[in-house]
Amino acid sequence: MVGSPVTLLADAGKRPVARRGVLSRKWSGILEPYLYVSPAIILIVAVMLMPLVLGLSYAFRDIRILNPFSGGFIGLAHFQTLMQDSAFFQALLNTAWWTFGSLLFQFSLGLILALLLNRHFVGRRLVQALVFLPWAVPTFLSGLNWAWLFNPVVGPLPHWFTALGIMDSPFNILSDPDLAMWGPIVANIWFGIPFFAITLLAALQSIPSDLYEAAAIDGATTRQQFFSITLPFLAPTIAITLMLRTIWIANFADLIVVMTNGGPADSTQIVASYIFTQAFRRLDFGYASAIAAVLLVLLLAYALSVIALRRAMSHSS
Amino acid sequence: MVLSGRSRLGTTVYWATHYLMIAAFVAFALFPLFWLLKVSVTPNDILYTEGVRMWPSRITWDNYAFVLTKSSFPHFFLNSVIVSGSTAFITTIIAAMTGYAFSRFAFRGKVVIIALMLITQMFPLVMLIAPIFRILAPLGLTDSLTGLIIVYTAFNVPFATFLMQSFFDGIPRDLEEAAMIDGNTRFEAFRKIILPLTLPGVAATLGFVFTAAWSELLFALMLVSSESASTFPVGLLSFVSKFSVDFGQMMAAGVLALVPACLFFLLIQRYLVQGLTAGAVKG
Amino acid sequence: MASIEIANARKSYGAVHVLHGIDLAIADGEFIVLVGPSGCGKSTLLRMIAGLEDITSGDIRIGDDIVNDLQPRDRDIAMVFQSYALYPHMTVAQNMSYALTLRKTAKERIAESLAGVSEILGLNALLDRRPKALSGGQRQRVAMGRAIVRKPRAFLFDEPLSNLDARLREQMRTEIRKLHRRLNATSVYVTHDQIEAMTMADRIVAMHDGIIQQVGTPIEIYDHPANIFVASFIGSPAMNFLHGTCIKTDTTSAIRFADGHILPVAPRPGLYAGQEITLGARPEHVAIAAPETPGALPARVDLIEPMGLSTLIHVTLAGHELKIFTMDRPAFAIDSTIHIAFDIDKTHIFDRNSELRLPPVIKAPEETTKETSGANGT
Ligand SMILES: Nc1ncnc2c1ncn2[C@@H]1O[C@H](COP(=O)(O)OP(=O)(O)O)[C@@H](O)[C@H]1O
Ligand SMILES: [Mg+2]
């Protein structure tokens, strides 16, 4: 440190960086964040918001692709038709069944998986990679794959069910109106467990471990630790992911379109796939948009009521 | 969790149950994929007679040969690689910039923009197909890979942004401040100092978006009509409706479709948990 | 090197005012320490000099330039961060030469500077390592090296030693001082640690709640604190304070405590009968006295803290807890009563309302101090 004096280069760092902003510091400081976010904003406005507004306007117009005289403004006519449309109400019921059936299993199995993965054990990294794999499988492929698994010709499931005595003889549940919905739901559970497991595992790993140590020193059993530390810490993550996933699943028609196309006899038709059918099989875009508008309103109402409920609960506690 | 106070036997029973349940989850996750593979290598003549055997008595690669040489799949595959690759690349750049702004700046309208991005996650996307078609058609962007890339990018930007933001939140601001004092503009500091440090985040986002774009079906089906611009999912689906008899070939195509997405995912899944953990700590 | 001048600088975040009109002139080559409790706005002021925070109003001048509108990179200053902020993906050598590379300095000159600086800081063996492979002390040196290599107009330090252990901190304190003597670089050093301030500063700037309380050399600040805040913040163990009321005759002044005890004090202007005042006495200016000593007051022993070299005795006097510093090793029983006496000439009197110190009339000529807030440097 003390040593002989070492000559430092005078001026080595003196040269100014050869570039000055054109705008004053204040202005460039104010504008800068907008420059960063503008590509995203432009894209989202052009590809999501504008089409949304346009789509909402279709709900009040007569837009049928094959009818050159369509396009006129018809007010609430579509919504009046909708009120009489029993297929729509059936689809609404199916949507609830599809959404909550899938969600219940995805969540509970995902939580169990996350808890299992949150312990150290031999081969954990490999196991984690493998059990998360279904999420990477393209949805259409999951759909096809599960459709094949339920098919008694190439799939083992009907034969296993028969062997277990659940079925009298091997048949395809996807062609039975009473059971068909289970097909897409099982595929959806398979596909959706990893999402919950990943999110909940991330939340679990962010719980400071000294909390558990403190609880253990205080004499809490493993079960008490779960209820007094783990669950309260997970609660916010659980609440938000459950809400977002509910909406996402209700909108998620791919598996149904691929596996059953809404059939047999509309028994697996959910609102999202019904919109798809109206728009692209019947080419009635006006009516499809009216249904979509109703779905959007229902989902927003659901989201808002969940948020309001959470507010009320956190205030009362 | 701590195991204190458990007997030795209790511990053994616990771990036995633990491994059993893990095994069940692994089996549930992998069995459908295994079956796909099994049917794809089963020769046609024994497909039905050995329908429920775990592994066929003979195997064949004919299905793969057919799919790769005699069908349009290589072409669909290429289209999908182009679309998913470009989408992942562009989305990650845009999401990195937006996520960085969310992480580092306080600015007017930020809350509104974040709320807007959250709301887009609620749309029934089916509803957007027709209007998007209306908007893209006059621009010549329907029936084109470019159009698909634009649409997929927009759909994926919100989630990718939140993911990137949680990674940036984990990097101290001091670093770019030091760089700005050393002579960088903020944007240069972002590019040269911060982005290299977020490579795990970039990888996770790339992988996530690639996988999402790779599996998208409805928009690919509706915005593209010609076979020359079809992606893999569309090709596979048309294959199903055209030759719904040949399971072996379909499943061979399915296995091939699975490969890139799975490879990507295996590489990134660790970072995905890490990124969400960072976010969870904050929020 | 350059001087730094801050004129009426303010900073607010929306409605929150963090700095209220800072005036400060730092001479070329001076080592200034900004000291104050956490949250008082030291870092904010430093970051305004660096250009990392906007200046809400006022001017900052480095050398002859007003730098308000300059980006950090155009201000030609270097900063050492509390976290060191080393670039994790670069080697030590790359970290230190980054700024020069950005300025397109010739390769040979970069190599030359790097060699010089790593020689001074003893970093020669570490040049190819990444920050991750360094100890805390080594990282600290690299952060210093990164600043020195550039030969900037001024060095800014934001609590650079607070992540080191006590021994290393002490060692780096001396090293930074020696380095400063060698480079003679204008330096602004932020810390919440008054020992760092006392030992390192040419002049200390004591801050509280976004206002400069006093500027002066360490000894000036220690001996003539401008107000109760500075008196209590600087010095360890801290100054003792006793509240009371001023009583006056024609010739003498005294303070009367709540329990009725009276202690004469040196007369000073501005003192009037009935005034609420606070007496401040450093632990070394309170002594144990024989009971018959004039002015000795009875106090109860609460605790005795042996420190090896010295001993600290905690006592209670007139409801106030006091600390007494002594080089002896007294053996008092806890709760016993002892007598203590104040070194009247060295005690301070503060007005309780304004909290300002009332300076005594008689002053030796060489004892001139500057106690106005924001006093300019030499
Ligand atoms: N971005 C900000 N928004 C609002 N208040 C801030 C912000 N940054 C700092 N502050 C406030 O300014 C005050 C001074 O902070 P700082 O300069 O960091 O203090 P310190 O003296 O400990 O370095 C603190 O009370 C802090 O809460
Ligand atoms: Mg600070």
Give an overview of the whole structure:
The complex is a heterotrimer of chains A (317), B (283) and C (378). Chain A is an all-alpha fold. Chain A has 12 helices and no strands. Chain A folds into 2 domains: 1-58; 77-316, Orthogonal Bundle (MetI-like fold), CATH 1.10.3720.10. In chain A, 67% of the residues lie in helices and 0% in strands. Chain A is globular and about 75 Å long. Chain B has 283 residues and is mainly alpha-helical. Chain B has 2 domains: 5-40; 72-272, MetI-like fold. Chain B has 13 helices and no strands. In chain B, helix 1 (8-40) crosses helix 13 and helix 7 (145-169) runs parallel beside helix 13. The model of chain C is unreliable at 366-378 (pLDDT under 50). Chain C has 2 domains: 4-230, P-loop containing nucleotide triphosphate hydrolases (Rossmann fold, 3-Layer(aba) Sandwich), CATH 3.40.50.300; 237-362, Nucleic acid-binding proteins (OB fold (Dihydrolipoamide Acetyltransferase, E2P)). With 378 residues, chain C is of the alpha+beta class. Chain C has helices at 42-50, 92-102, 107-121, 136-149, 166-183, 194-200, 218-223, 228-233, and strands at residues 4-13, 16-26, 31-35, 57-62, 65-66, 77-80, 154-158, 187-191, 203-208, 211-216, 240-248, 253-256, 262-265, 276-281, 286-289, 297-306, 311-317, 320-326, 337-342, 348-351. The chains are: A mainly alpha (317), B mainly alpha (283), C alpha+beta (378). Chains in contact: A-B, A-C, B-C.
Characteristic terms for this protein:
heterotrimer, A: 317 residues, mainly alpha, MetI-like fold, 2 domains, 12 helices, 67% helix, C: 378 residues, alpha+beta, Rossmann fold, OB fold (Dihydrolipoamide Acetyltransferase, E2P), 6-stranded mixed beta sheet, 5-stranded antiparallel beta sheet, 32% strand, disordered C terminus, binds adenosine-5'-diphosphate, binds magnesium ion
Largest beta-sheet details of chain C = 6 strands, mixed
- In CATH, the homologous superfamily of the largest domain in chain C goes by the name P-loop containing nucleotide triphosphate hydrolases
Q: End-to-end distance of chain C, in Å?
A: 16 Å
Would you list the SSEs of chain C in sequence order as H and E?
EEEHEEEHHHEHEHEEHHEEEEEEEEEE
The CATH topology of the largest domain in chain C is Rossmann fold
**Helix and strand composition category of chain C:** alpha+beta
Unreliable spans of chain C are 366-378
Major sheet summary line of chain A? none
How many β-strand runs of chain A? 0
- CATH architecture classification of the largest domain in chain A: Orthogonal Bundle
Strand order within the widest sheet of chain C?
6-7-8-3-9-10
Main interface: chain pair and counts: A-B, 105 and 98 residues
Number of helices of chain A: 12
Mean pLDDT across residues of chain C: 90
Radius of gyration of chain A: 28 Å
Beta-strand content estimate of chain C: 25-35%
How much helical structure, as a percent, in the residues of chain C?
A: 10-25%
Beta strand count of chain C = 20
